[in-house]
Amino acid sequence: MTRALTAGGLVAVLGVGAGLWASSGDDGTPAGSASQQVADGPSAGDRGVARAPSPSPTPSRAYPLSTAPRTIPAVRSHTPARGPGWRPAAGRRVVVGDAGLADEGRLVAGELGLSYAGVRSDARAGDLRLARNADRGANPESYTMTVRGGRVTVSAPSDAGVFYGTRTLKQEVRGGGTAPEGVVRDQPAKPQRGFTLDIARKNFSAGWIEDRVRELGDLKYNQLGLHFSDDQAFRIQSDTHPEIVAQEHLTKAQVRQIVALAAQRHITVVPEIDSPGHLGAVLAAHPELQLRNARGVATRGAIDISQKASANLLDDLLNEYAGLFPGGYWHLGGDEYQALTVSDPAASYPQLASAARARYGPGARVSDLATGWLDDRAATVRAHDRTMRAWNDGFFRGTSVKPASDLVVAYWTGKEIGARTPTEYLSAGRKMLNYNDEYLYYVLGEPNDFAYPTGRRIYEQWTPRVLRGTTPVAARYDAQILGGSLSVWCDLANAQTQAQVAAGVRMPLRATAQKLWDARTPTLTWSQFTSLANRLG
User: Fold this and answer.
1) Whole-number Cα distances in Å, 216 to 194, 278, 406, 454
2) pTM, two decimal places
3) Residue 31 to residues 34, 41, 84, 120, 176: CA-CA distances in angstroms?
């Protein structure tokens, strides 16, 4: 088992292979049964598995042609066949093609009540075989699942793809069901599929977060964002600056357990320490770094970016938490810096204007200084080999200092002052992630005209190309949109309990998973999709 996959994997177009017929013995016994004593070999992509000769396939009239499995997200392709299908039973084995798939094998064995047999080259009736294949150039998260003759083979270019195949199988047999005969070929439309949780404004228990990790894994998400610093609290133990940490917080041991559980399910935990705004909790312990206007009035949540000590403090934290979150992604924040929401930032904050000119020249503005701040923090994180993102309102129009070219735009709103359309970023070649607050924001207490999403609008109207409002960008930009994230923001933290949040995001999570895996119009109606979700649990 390897760490959750990074973004940008090639998305190969999977074709539909020829249908497979299950052969049967003269007595009508399904192929693969003990009485038939015929061992069909694994799929061509599997390695290290002995092949036994098979009889020439003949159509069986004992079984109807199979139908596609019903799963969330739906599989992209299913080639039907005739045969008994497969279901778990006591004594059946999970075998793997190599030891690197042990985590995936043990997990699915425990979930389905099977015996984990480890690396094996023999084939037995009822086996579930997991294997890596040599499908070079394929989407690394793709997989093929073949149900034939009473056995199942899941093969993929990577262990993540194998894991996703086991999620499909788990859903197929949920509640005593049968995995249908035939071949599933599946892959995600988008390489980054996330859920963002604001644990700064509301304290969520480690156990609750771990439950969400398990839920996300079964829905084939591959990122969990943790926004753990804001004006209300800083929620993870710090060794470099323990003075900033809230009384209710996650210990580093708890975070490591969450990160490890996520990695087992090929989910990367993406940390966010938002700056230079949203730092109220940090500044409560460091009032000397609080940004103040020309009249000496403190500016809520804003750190004074003209002071070197401010940069030192943030870099201490970024370097510290890089060791706690080993995944390949990092969120730098950058949004809602209040110094840039006033009509004349230079007049209101002369110290920022002076620092901008001193560093970038006589024509530099406060927005240049803020852009430089973001670039400096990016440099700190880049040293840890991370791919970075920042909120779209941390990018400013017309600055002489340009945002780092490797910053991905996390587009969440078009309501900020001087809002830039998604097309402005895309036409400049910038990559983007979709956090559209019109569809994907679950805001506790529903302030500022927000309404809890039910999932239906996401399912019926939203696609990853709908970055702002309800209008999609042109299809030519699709490849630059790496994926998206459903987000829980706890503006009014006590408006819902943890249990209510879990129940409230249940269907939005499933709808978002469907549209990030396959942006096409779903085949099921919303009512049918809801019924399926209720059946699958």
Assistant:
1) 9, 27, 27, 17
2) 0.88
3) 9, 12, 9, 21, 21
Exposed e or buried b per residue across 418-444, where buried means at least 16 C-beta atoms within 10 angstroms of its C-beta = eebbbeebbeeebbbbbbbbbbbbbbb
Report the candidate in 169, 151, 172, 149 with the shortest Cα–Cα distance to residue 161.
169
Instruction: Say which DSSP state 12 is in.
Output: P
Q: At how many degrees (to 10) do helices 366-382 and 350-360 cross?
A: 60
CA distances from 417 to 304, 340, 393 (A): 21, 9, 8
β-pair type (408-411, 432-434) = parallel
The reported pLDDT for the residue numbered 414 is: 85
Average pLDDT on 465-473 reads: 97
What six digits make up the tokens of 302?
């804003």
Write out the two tokens for 525: 């109606």
> Rounded CA gap, 111 and 245, in Å?
38
Residues 432 and 484: their CA atoms lie apart, in Å, by 9
DSSP designation for 505: T
- Kindly report the backbone phi and psi dihedral angles of residue 148, in degrees, each rounded to the nearest multiple of 5, phi listed first: -155, 135
**Tens digits of residue pLDDT in 396-441:** 988 999 999 999 999 999 887 667 899 999 999 999 999 999 999 9
For the chain, the first-to-last Cα distance in angstroms comes to 26
CA angle 47, 14, 524 (to 5 degrees): 120
| Residue 241, burial from CB neighbour count under 10 angstroms (0-12, 13-18, 19+) | middle
**Per residue in 216-237, is it b (16+ CB within 10 Å) or e — as a string?**
bbbbbbbbbbbbbbbbbbbbbb
Those residues whose C-beta lies under 8 Å from the C-beta of residue 502, and which sit 6 or more positions away, are: 208, 211, 212
Residue type, 215: E
- 503 CB burial (10 A radius; 0-12, 13-18, 19+): exposed
Helix crossing, 102-112 with 159-172: angle to 10°? 10
Query: How many other CB atoms are there within 10 angstroms of residue 396's CB atom?
Result: 21
* The Cα angle at residue 281 between residues 498 and 492, in degrees rounded to 5: 35
